[in-house]
Specification:
heterodimer; A: 572 residues; Rossmann fold; six-stranded parallel sheet; 36% helix; B: 163 residues; Alpha-Beta Plaits; 4 helices; 9 strands; binds thiamine diphosphate
């Protein structure tokens, strides 16, 4: 029998759970835990400079590896600082466990120093939260937390740990439960066979089908199955911003991503389709545009692990609740066995139509002889890194350009806050990726607005030697806000201009890194090559790009999928 | 449409606030809510009455089911069911009113459970319409205080909501 204190049990449970890294920040209520952490060397702790960054770091780690991230913070301000990060992970269904210190159970409710009701504060933005009521429970609570966070539709789980649950000199028997079973939580393990059969029949009979895939394919590790099915059917495929990489972007069946800033051809093909197979996506308002005008001729098959995502905004004709990999696998078998074949003539004419759309816009943008266009920065980076980098982004125009012009052939490499749209996500997320992918190129594509929301993490990068490349598309403005003001507020640029920017080069140097400024178009490629050659250095690349550029295509507000602006003057 | 959703919930601290939080967070209505432990002390039974289109009700039941502590639920209004609410009401009762109130209480099969020289306290059980009807019948001017438990419900026949 092994007797351990609550704090030691906690760390031991993390070890037994196979946790490699914790991202965190210490404080009073978490000190027993930090002491236990000090007395072992299996679980490594990364000290950030702000708790929000710890959560984004855990999030970046989770998105790149598919494994749940782990955060440890103290009570009160430590805990509340994590909320934006937790909400970010919640909106994108990212598995993570956030361990929060809490004041001693005897003080709860007395407005004690650094007391915040973290269970209450976090409730709307977590998949679940748990509090420890007895030290002996700790192994089970930890096991449960990871189990809930990483199964079904994944999400963040908060664990609240009152300080007296971790008292050093109170020891209890340590038993790490082998299996967790919850009578009230049983995510589906396969889809309904009859529904799957019906879906396959519809797919084979469709004349203008389209496959619409989302982040669920990446979270469900189903890119392989999706690619196989799509190739077998010969159907066009589009994906959401969160689904980027779930199907190779360089493949000719891929139409790019869809929605507000999606490609012309994917939005057109969606609108005119007769059958949409939605795989792990959720008909988000940034995809559908006005729901009452959404794809009038399409019947909809919707596969999702979360029944609540089905028929929430757009009604499904054939709902299939189940893990995407298992459902797609069954579909592949059925297609193989089926005597019916896809309607070759119908598909050929559908593809002719799609190729016309593809040729019509083709993600063109105007270039200039002297001004650097943000799009060409991304295209150059994509070429120089052969499309193989891990790319994190912040939120704004730079995010859309990165997603549009960097071509991802693999899942888990495009990492952005799609659901919550959190500025400040990019740098810490990149750090979480770099830590576990030291030999891969990790780019953080950001803007001068967003990067300043977690710029303090340059210090953490120095401490742990995280040589990410920060690509600051500096348009000297909160560009996306400015674009909306140009389009909807007669260019009244209310508070969208970033005056008195810091000297980012000196700032990077102050933190012990390298800063490179690029402001002449002819330098772009050579300087980026030099930057990428500095393998073991964090380089902050401050690139002065066209201040007046807009992101296109852009769906017309309250229109259908097919109503888009294609440039400042062209509307279809 | 009005619906009665009956939920078996893990009897744990915080579980109820998750249910209530869900309704406000997702902009769903709660008309009444009752909750109490069951014969199995690890479970609470919660009944919520709400209104909404079929689509909204479908989302409510799906979102409730997603809560980790919700073990099972049923929309009682989908089948035949019994619903009951208990009301205690204090009525001004002086002079000729006393006999009149007594008659009305009898018609509604209620009971006068406490009496003073000027006040009757009446207990009445039934579905919500019946309780509303009683208040109307005695007239709001004589009503001093009303307390209602909210609706509890159970399916008719052999159907049971259990583990
Ligand atoms: C935390 C947070 N605050 C505000 C916003 C609203 N917002 C969306 S994009 C944007 C501008 C971002 O500016 P910048 O990072 O410079 O990117 P750009 O659009 O210029 O490329 C703002 C303020 C947000 N998404 N996140
Ligand atoms: Mg900017």
């Amino acid at each position: 029998m092994e007797l351990l204190s609550g704090a030691d049990m906690l760390i031991r449970s993390l070890q037994d759970e196979g946790i490699e890294y914790i991202y965190g920040y210490p404080g009073g209520a978490a000190l027993h835990i930090y002491d236990a952490l000090f007395r072992q060397d299996k679980v490594k702790h990364i000290l950030v400079r702000h708790e929000q960054a710890a959560v984004h770091m855990a999030d970046g780690y989770a998105r790149a590896t598919g494994k749940p991230g782990t955060v440890l913070v103290t009570s009160g301000p430590g805990a509340t600082n994590t909320i934006t990060g937790i909400a970010t992970a919640f909106m994108d269904s990212i598995p993570m466990v956030v361990l929060c210190g809490q004041v001693a159970s005897t003080l709860i409710g007395e407005d004690a120093f650094q007391e915040t009701d973290m269970i209450g504060v976090s409730r709307p933005v977590v998949k679940h939260n748990l509090s420890v009521r007895h030290p002996e429970e700790i192994p089970e609570v930890i096991r449960k937390a990871y189990y809930i966070a990483s199964t079904g539709r994944p999400g963040p789980v908060v664990v609240d740990i009152p300080k007296d649950m971790t008292t050093p000199n109170e020891r209890y028997e340590y038993v790490f439960p082998k299996k967790i079973k919850l009578r009230s939580y049983n995510p589906a393990i396969r889809g309904h066979a009859g529904q799957i059969k019906k879906a396959v029949d519809m797919l084979l009979a469709a004349k203008r089908p389209i496959i619409y895939a989302g982040g669920g394919v990446i979270l469900g590790k189903a890119s392989g199955q999706l690619t196989e099915l799509v190739r077998m059917l010969g159907h066009p495929i589009t994906n959401t911003l969160m689904g980027i990489g779930c199907y190779p972007a360089s493949d000719k069946q891929h139409l790019g991503w869809l929605g507000m800033h999606g490609t012309y051809e994917s939005n057109m093909a969606m609108h005119h389709s007769d059958l949409i197979l939605c795989v792990g996506a959720r008909f988000d308002d940034r995809v559908t545009n006005a729901t009452e005008k959404f794809c009038p001729g399409a019947r909809i098959v919707h596969i999702d692990i979360d029944p609540a995502s089905i028929s929430k905004t757009i009604d499904a004709d054939v709902p299939i609740v189940g893990p995407v990999d298992a459902v797609l696998k069954e579909m592949i078998t059925l297609v193989k066995e089926s005597k019916e074949k896809p309607d070759a003539d119908a598909l050929a004419s559908w593809w002719r139509q799609i190729e016309e759309w593809r040729a019509f816009h083709g993600m063109r943008y105007e270039t200039s002889p002297d001004v650097i266009k943000p799009q060409e920065v991304i295209e150059t980076l994509c070429r120089l890194t052969k499309g193989e980098a891990f790319v994190t982004s912040d939120v704004g125009q730079h995010q859309m350009f990165a997603a549009q012009y960097y071509k991802f052939d693999k899942p888990n490499r495009w990492i952005n806050s799609g659901g919550l749209g959190t500025m400040g996500f990019g740098l810490p997320a990149a750090m979480g990726v770099k830590l576990t992918h030291p030999d891969d190129e990790v780019l953080c594509i950001t803007g001068e607005g967003s990067i300043q929301m977690n710029i303090q993490e340059l210090s953490t990068c120095n401490q742990y030697n995280l040589p990410v490349k920060i690509i600051n598309l500096n348009n000297q403005a909160l560009g996306m806000v400015k674009q909306w003001q140009d389009m909807n507020y007669e260019s009244r640029h209310s508070q969208s201009y970033m005056e008195s920017l810091p000297d980012f080069i000196k700032l990077a140097e102050a933190y012990g890194h390298v800063g490179v400024r690029i402001d002449r178009k002819e330098d772009l490629e050579t300087k980026l090559k030099e930057v990428l050659a500095m393998k073991d250095k964090l380089v902050f690349v401050d690139i002065y790009v066209d201040r007046f550029e807009h992101v296109y295509p852009m769906q017309v507000a309250r229109g259908s999928m097919k109503d888009m602006w294609l440039s400042k003057t062209e509307r279809v | 449409m009005r619906r009665i959703i009956s939920v078996l919930l893990e009897n744990e601290p915080g579980a109820l606030s998750r249910v209530v939080g869900l309704f406000s967070q997702r902009n769903y209505n709660i008309e009444t809510l009752t909750v109490a432990p069951t014969e199995d002390e690890t479970l609470s039974r919660l009944t919520v009455t709400t209104t909404g289109s079929d689509k909204v009700i479908e989302q409510i039941t799906k979102q409730l089911n997603k809560l980790i502590e919700v073990v099972k639920l049923v929309d009682l209004t989908e089948g035949s069911h019994i619903e009951r609410e208990l009301m205690l009401v204090k009525l001004k009762a002086t002079g000729s009113q006393r006999a009149e109130i007594k008659r009305t209480v009898d018609i509604f099969r209620g009971q006068i459970v406490d009496v003073t020289s000027s006040v009757y306290t009446v207990q009445l059980a039934g579905d919500s319409d019946k309780l509303d009807g009683f208040i109307q019948a005695v007239g709001t001017s004589g009503v001093l205080e009303v307390v209602r438990t909210g609706v509890s419900g159970i399916a008719r026949g052999e159907k049971v909501l259990s583990l």
